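Q: My labmate handed me this sequence with no annotations at all. I'd like to see what the chain might look like in three dimensions before we decide whether it's worth expressing. Could you predict it?
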Amino acid sequence: MKRVSSSLVPPIALDRSKRYPLYRQLYDWFQRAIASGQLRPGQRVPSTRSLAAELNVSRIPVLNAFEQLHAEGYLQTFVGAGTWVASSIPQETIGPSTGKISGPAQKKGTRRISQGGLAATLRAPQPWLNLSGAFRMHLPALDHFPTDVWSRLVARNARKSTMDTMAYGDSMGYAPFREVIAEYLGAVRAVRCDPAQVMVVAGSQQGLQISARVLLNPGEAVWMEEPGYPGAHQAFRTAKARLIPVPVDNEGLNVENGIHRCRNARAAYITPSHQYPLGTTMSATRRLQLLNWASRTGSWIIEDDYDSEYRFGSRPIASLQGLDSDARVIYIGTFSKVLFPALRLGYMVVPTDLIPAFSTARDAADIFSSTLYQAVLTDFIKEGHFARHIRRMRILYADRRNALAEAIHEEIGGMLEIVSAEAGMHLVGLLPRGMKDTEISQNAARIGISAMPLSICYLNRPLRGGLVLGYGGTDGAQIHDGAHKLKMCL
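A: Here is what I predict for the chain of 490 residues:
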């Protein structure tokens, strides 16, 4: 490439008042100038001595900046000839960006992505999920989490880290943690399993993704509760499954309706202990019907037991998996909702013959979860902190549930009909027919209220819209203020 002899460069502005190092300011300037085309490949640049004199700075930051630019291939030096912008930088990669998109994607106004399962999961912006104020869904009472205890356990486990715990872990999870989970599930949820069947995942969403990948071929049908969990819709759509909406009533999933719609569905996704989002509990009759259907057809049942710890009127409902005598149920649970979302630890109980397939899928996803946090949570459970936290939160959430129900009654009256509020960390309020819940949710988001529209939980258009309001992370003052603001939106 022809060299341009001129060593003139555009003016360089350095800000000595910034805490940003001078060498880094110089490095950034040259990088931007080369990328934008201000400095062209083969163009000579001033020597470090002359540039330092021109900028009235020490030569040291100039040397440091040039050294980094040399290392990254932006500059090259020729003995006796000085320093030049590297000629190896392709001409077509530099110059101001026009922002134009070429080729077929230009017609659609977007860059092309895979048209596989992921494309089907793309959805419109959801402003109600970008808020941390009143009624944010899936957010527990973080201000009541025993941070001091947790920090102490983290520090203790970090100090005693060994080469084994710092190296690659088992894709099924940290063995002591799996043992604690199996013991906990057997005692509290009546789940029948041994530690070998427990797989640790990064929250229930990953459990759904892995289940969809292992159990379903593209085009195979899966029953979905209608309404149901949007995250499950995403997981199964990503696997290119065919989603069959099956209505939910006060007894849970209508199994007879599911058989009528698609008898030979490959799987059924359910939330039997606390239906998402309506909050109903699946009756014993429906549970047995579902298990019989799965056994007859060789289908799978994916049981999402996402917040079963929080029932207010009675003891937690036993799991469906505990009734399964034919190993047709994959059981999924999470600690992210009952402790804190950033923990990203959940679990699955997998039938014994499926362990190799699930383990392989987990390894392909992200190999394994953080061993440190698995060890910390093992101690947190074994030392009784988890059970105490659940008991305290059950009382707190019952109070917040009552406060929200009262605030809705006082502020909104007949405009919002509460459906169910006997468990969990949210309640559903139905709107009058004809009122668009997405518009209300968007208006609420503009004034800082996170009110999720019920309609996004449906695969088909619902007859009646509603709002899904989380109260786990919303205190009493926020509840009353939020209900008042919600009234203005309605």
